[in-house]
Amino acid sequence: VTQFTQINRDFLELLMETIGVNVNTIVANARTDELLAESQRLTAELQARSAELQAQQEELQHSNAELEDKASLLAAQNRDIEAKNLQIEQARQELEARAQQLSLASKYKSEFLANMSHELRTPLNSLLILAQLLAQNPSRNLTPKQVEYAGIIHSAGSDLLQLINDILDLSKVEAGKMDVSPERVTLRQLIEYVEATFRPMTGQKGLEFTVTTAPGAPADLLTDDSRLRQVLRNLLSNAVKFTERGGVELSVEPAPDDEVPAGVVRGGAVVAFRVKDTGIGIPEQNLESIFGAFQQADGTTSRKYGGTGLGLSITREIAQLLGGAVTVDSTP
């Protein structure tokens, strides 16, 4: 074994120092490469995130612009709505004012007509009495033509009186001045009145007239006798007027619970007065209109059969005052 000389040892030390420097340089370069790669990666991520944030910011700006446009549009719509609401409110107030004026005018008209009943009826009744006396010609001093003319005056005056009565009754209802006086009314007396009034009338037209009382019908009723008679008189008069052949029927019977119309006051058992005829009938689309004041099923009805169209309107109003209701069913 040969020992290292001093020169050899010096050389090895110098070599080791050089190798160490090179190794350190290699390690430092490797670390630098790693840090550079990491820096490049972070830079790329930062650029990507920056681009994403930029896109989000642009999208947010676009959304804000849309929201501002929508807010402006909504504000304009709100202004339009407020203006229209103001117009509607003004129109509503005007309508209310006009409705109050119309209601007041209608009330004054109805009160005027309702209060002038005596002034209209008294002179007309006097004329009718005189015309009837002339038509009867008790002194036998009038010619047949004069008697005929007196009869025409009496007939036309009676029609006029009926028209006045109908108008006054309708006006009383509208003015709230039609009073009812409930009392005990025997069904037998009511039937006798109907028989005495309408059997001669139907006999003149060659019509059958039937009045039936079903089992279970009450012996008496608590109602206004004169108003109930007026209702039956209007209904039966219409039935006779519009029936050329066949017959007219009045039936009195307890009303089944499932057939009681809405609006009927239920103070006990409900009685139904059913008027049935074989007349001309009414189209379904006109059934409700016949209850309007001055309304008939069609324009030709008044020309052919006469009448003003007030009877059924008054009948329905009176029936409601009596706590009842009037309904209609027809087959033309």
Question: Would you mind describing this structure in some detail?
Answer:
By secondary structure, the chain is mostly helical. It folds into three domains: 1-112; 116-175; 183-321, Histidine kinase-like ATPase, C-terminal domain (Heat Shock Protein 90). The chain is built from seven helices and five strands; from the N terminus they run αααβαββαββαα. Strands 2-4-5 form a three-stranded mixed β-sheet, covered by helices on one side. A two-stranded antiparallel sheet has the order 1-3. The radius of gyration is 51 Å and the shape is rod-shaped.
Low-confidence stretches: none
What is the tally of helical segments?
7
Largest sheet report: 3 strands, mixed
Instruction: Report helical residue fraction.
Output: 55-70%
Encode the helix/strand succession as letters.
HHHEHEEHEEHH
Q: C-alpha Rg, in Å?
A: 51 Å
Spatial order of the strands forming the largest sheet:
2-4-5
CATH class of the largest domain: Alpha Beta
Strands, total number? 5
Helix-strand category: mainly alpha
